[in-house]
Amino acid sequence: MHTKTLIELSTALHNGDISSVELTQHYLNRINSHNSELNAFITVAEDHALEQARAADSRLQQKTAGRLTGIPLAHKDIFCTEGLRTSCGSKMLDNFIAPYNATVVEKTNAAGMVTLGKTNMDEFAMGSSNETSFYGQVQNPWDKQYVPGGSSGGSAAAVAANLAPIATGTDTGGSIRQPASLCNLTGLKPTYGRISRYGMIAFASSLDQAGPMAHSAEDAALLLNEMAGFDPRDSTSVEQDVPDYSATLNDSIEGLKIGLPKEYFGEGLDPQVAAAVETAIKTYESLGAIIKDITLPNTSLAVPTYYVVAPAECSSNLSRMDGVRFGHRCDDPKDLLDLYQRSRGEGFGEEVKRRIMIGTYALSAGYYDAYYLKAQQCRRLISDDFKQAFNDVDVIMGPTAPTTAFKLGAKTDDPVAMYLADIYTISTNLAGLPGMSIPAGFVKGLPVGLQIIGNYFDEARLLNVAHRYQQATDWHQQSPDNFK
Amino acid sequence: MQWAVEQAANHLNFTLSSKKSALGPSMSLDKTDVEKIAHLARLAIDDSDIPHYAQDLTTIFGLVEQLSSVNTDGITPMAHPLDAVQRLRPDHATETDQREQFQAIAPKTEAGVYLVPQVIE
User: Fold this and answer.
1) Is the pLDDT of residue B2 over 80?
2) Which terminal Cβ of chain B has fewer Cβ within 10 Å, N or C?
3) Domains of chain B, with CATH numbers?
4) What number of C-beta contacts closer than 8 Å exist between A and B?
5) Given A336, A376, A433, which is nearest B78 (Cβ)?
6) Contact, A53 vs A23, CB < 8 A?
7) Shortest CA gap A357–chain B (Å)
8) Is residue B72 over pLDDT 70?
9) What are the tens digits of pLDDT across the range A323-374?
10) Triad A294, A298, A303: Cα angle to 5°
11) What homologous superfamily is domain A6-255+394-483 in, according to CATH?
């Protein structure tokens, strides 16, 4: 039951072959059996899930159910869920029960989907390995000695291990695509503004974007249909119609122009990952696509630009965590300054403090022009590279990550080495473009992801391009032995 | 009140101890710098952790230094990926009063207000 596609599950629910309560209980049982070995969930919402499942069953019986009614999902613990703890992977919010739902949660609730629980993540989404979580590291289901990637590592591990049929994630510099790559999933970061950020705890507001993490493009399209859309409560939400992402999955990709940026295949890329990606490109050629070499000359600026922009915005966003209105407060503060400093010092972990300090320094008096302004200008250069490239090609392809999953603890002492894990994903966040990772093979038993980058609001094409590949290959159907 | 004035004064007077030029080739942050940044960020940091943070921040700013060699003359800074402007809406109340619900999760409240250590003598 836990290896079925969303369409198969939906059909079974609508035909009455299975109830949502039975399906939900099946997944809850799997979580109970396996979560202790993976640590994919921070909170399992058993009672809440079964209540939603019962409501879904009524809708199914009354024939008022939608396509996804009764289907369980897991939400990254960055989305506010009314009545359920929303920790964002931090001690700071260990006691935070959100008083309202994020728009994404409101939408999946309205669709009749069942929230199984809240998934583990790097603290405040700052990390590429899920090792900065206050709730402990997450193990990669493909090999438990390896990281699942981050920051949406819990969502990735949960879906890869079939503890949830699908999950939500967020992506500020690669946090959907890189864990999708490391766990053999299909993950999509839409265009900036496509999905509402309301109730999604802010890390870097000009970069953050939510998206689906799924087994296939077909499943991802179904969830994106529910998640996307304009929201007046998010001032950066874009007013643009949402197409039916499922409707164009099967369109022909004959004549599709694929650009391969030479900067994505250079130094630092594992040769075996490169070989897997090149094989995937050949598959596209055999499907009728046309391959073109392109250049994104400012690629090397992406990581340094990101490590000014993201920390600067994080230092501002996280200033709301002050021990006054919600979250952690230190014991016996002697004055207001002590209350702020110790509540924040105790509540935040090391990586979060590091990034707050980078941002604080970069924004401090006299340094703004040299750091933040300069980075915003470099951001424009990076974005212009893509604009130029999309004059000649329909999509851009390359590796999602430079290597397959690395061992737990391998990069925890070297922040810059960790930051470089996102070297191919960060540019799209800076440019605000949609990007996707899809399974493209294995190196020594660990998954490799192919990244597909599209033009603004071209999510339907990305899903179509991914789906056609998944019709011709079966990488996305592979599951780790212990979780079949 | 006095506290607030002091903080503002500290903020205005904030300069890094060693008068660093931003994005200079030999930039490195020392203990005093980290203490000042931590203070600005309102983060209590253990003394024993300071050398470690100084080292990490120096390494990260070393990475960022690459930007200084890029010619960005005349390049408009990019604040929003789609260059969107702030949307306006009619100025009328849309939210209901949920004070009790919001204060239920606060560390300390009394009579509808948030409590903090005494600020005004």
Assistant:
1) no
2) C
3) 24-70 (1.10.20.60)
4) 181
5) A376
6) yes
7) 6
8) yes
9) 999 999 999 999 999 999 999 999 999 999 999 999 999 999 899 999 999 9
10) 120
11) Amidase signature (AS) domain (3.90.1300.10)
Chosen for mutation from B23, B57, B59, B60 (greatest number of chain A CBs closer than 10 Å) is B60
CB contact under 8 A, A380 and B75: yes
Mean residue pLDDT across chain A: 97
Contact between chains at A377 and B76 (C-beta distance less than 8 A): yes
Bridge partners of A259? A292, A396
Decide if A76 is catalytic: yes
Structure tokens at A91: 């001690």
Rounded-to-integer distance, Cα A262 and Cα A290, Å: 16
CA A305 vs. chain centroid, Å, equals 21
Strands (E), A143-208: 167-171, 186-189
- The 10s digit of each residue's pLDDT in B11-52 is 433 444 444 555 554 578 999 999 999 999 999 999 999 999
> Where in chain A are the domains?
6-255+394-483, 300-376
Residue among A129, A151, A152, A155 flagged as catalytic: A151
Query: Edge-to-edge strand order for the sheet containing A72-76?
Result: A41-44, A114-119, A72-76, A167-171, A209-214, A186-189, A435-443, A446-454, A395-399, A257-261, A290-294
Query: Do the Cβ atoms of A341 and B80 come within 8 Å?
Result: no
In chain B, count H helices and then E strands: 4, 2
DSSP conformational letter for B21: P
Residue A119 has pLDDT above 80, yes or no: yes
Could you report the predicted ipTM of this complex, rounded to two decimals? Answer: 0.92
Structure-token pair, residue A442: 């294995």
d(CA A171, CA B35): 32
Residues 6+ positions from A349 with CB-CB distance below 8 Å: A90, A91, A123, A132, A134
The predicted-structure confidence for A256-304, as pLDDT tens digits, reads as follows: 999 999 999 998 999 999 999 999 999 999 999 999 999 999 999 999 9
**DSSP code per residue over A291-325:** EEEE--TTGGGHHHHHHHHHHHHHHHHGGG-SSSS
Contacts of A405 (CB under 8 A, 6+ apart): A140, A142, A143, A146, A147, A148, A149, A182, A183, A446, A447
Using a CB-CB cut-off of 8 Å, the residues of chain A touching B6 are: none
**Residues 201 through 220 of chain A touching chain B, CB cutoff 8 Å:** 206
Which residue of A lies nearest to B81 if distances are taken between CA atoms? A432
